[in-house]
Amino acid sequence: MEYCHRPRELMWKGYTQYPDQIWGLDTNDGLKVVLPPRFLDELKSHPDLSFKVSIDSDMQIEYTRFGGPPEYVINTIKGSLNISLPAFTPVIHKIVRDNLERVIGDYPDWTPVKVHDRILKLVGTSNARVFHSAAVSQSEEWVDAATGYVITTFDCIKALKAWPPYLRPFVYRFLPERAAILDQWRRARPFVEASVRQKQKMNNAFLESPGSMLDHLCAVQNGAFSRDIDKQLLFQMTLVAVGTVTTFASITQALYDLAYRPEYIAALREEVESAPREANQLFSRTSLAHMKKLDSFIKESQRLSAPDLTTFQRAATADVTLSDGTVIPTGTRLEIATSAIHLDEKNYEHPNQFDGLRFYRARLEPGAENRHLYVSVGKNDLSFGYGRHACPGRFLGHINIKLIMAEILLNYDFKLPDGAERPKNGEFEAIVSPDPEIEIFMKNRWPDEA
């Protein structure tokens, strides 16, 4: 049970006791092997190491319906969605701007606000346009079912892992979280079916421009997938889960960090205010690239409060022999102790100290302009994994995070209660979650200040 309730401490203990060595974690689901970063390059594209098999196991896919995205979906993100992100940026900004007051709230005076669920809803609204359609993004029913699934899934995982694996096939039938998941999928299905039918009537033309993931996943060349309602529902709910949880958690963590460290607010706000805009006053990819200090702040927040304590999760689908002769047997699950690597003073100066401009200063070094970005990956920079399975959705997440943080900076003042500490995170196994019950004080900025 130590791995369930003291995971960060165990990660650091193993990392420091066995430097540059292979070691193991005893979990309720069996042994997990933790690799040192020196093996990353030889394993990053290994055909016998599966990201999906590992994530499916961790997420209890047979009970939660949540697992790693199918390779087909990942390829569509890389080959279709990411290419269209420059066109999507002002579209997402308009959705965020138009829904900000409705979702986050209107506060003429200082008001305590639980921002966790509000940020989740705002991310769910913008992601619904990217994943599905503009009409669905404005549907309370869809956004409620989709964002509810994000939360309920992880509640269900925690409930299941309180039981030994051999009892879970019986226990899951009685869990209220499992019943809620089924209800959320039932509520989402009519929206997917209606969109697929509409596309069929349009000879599979895009519902709008730029095309959503549903548009791409329903493309004619994809054959039966384009007409399979159950497959398209699976794709949509998988995208909702993987594409929302990290983004909304990262925004919430960054807001907690910024409310606790208000000395950064003025510099970040000034940077946002000075960013170039399109003629309709919407931000573009160029605008977001201008926000280098904000990029550094959210990256530092993620370094210390990443959604996962481990990354580079893999399961061996065949025996794998490492360069030092070590044999990884079939079925072994592997990971990297990312949280410990990010606190290693060999990798970061004063690693336990929050430095919101750490990466901004690093990018000022000659030749480093395009390094140390929020979306960067490297052997000491592993929040998004490494290799061919490094998170392909991080580019969309980056856009959402910056746009929402920018609009909050422009439209609200915010702070923690006097004397409050930085809110503590919840940690269960490798999952890190911002506390949903935390209140921060918020107040509208005067019109001439926004």
From TrEMBL:
Keyword Cell inner membrane in annotation: no
Keyword vocabulary terms for this entry: Heme, Iron, Metal-binding, Monooxygenase, Oxidoreductase
Cofactors named for this entry: heme
Domain of life: Eukaryota
InterPro entries listed in its UniProt record: Cyt_P450, Cyt_P450_CS, Cyt_P450_E_grp-IV, Cyt_P450_sf
GO MF term set: heme binding; iron ion binding; monooxygenase activity; oxidoreductase activity, acting on paired donors, with incorporation or reduction of molecular oxygen
Binding site for heme: C391
Family statement drawn from the similarity comment of this UniProt entry: Belongs to the cytochrome P450 family.
Name of protein: Cytochrome P450 monooxygenase
